[in-house]
Amino acid sequence: MRLPANLLIGGTLVALVLGTAALSLVWTPHDATRIVVAMKFQPPSWSHPLGTDQLGRDVVSQLMVGARNSVAIALVAVLLGGGIGTALGLLAAAVGGWVEEVVMRLADFSFAFPALLFAIMLAAVFGPSLTNAVIAIAFINIPVFARVARASAAQVWTRGYVLAAASAGRGRAAITWDHVIPNVLAPVTVQLTIEFAVGILAEAALSYLGLGVQPPTPSWGRMLSEAQTLLYLAPQLAIWPGVCIMVAVLGFNLLGDGLRDLSDPMLRRAR
Question: What's the predicted TM-score (pTM) here?
Answer without folding.
Answer: 0.90
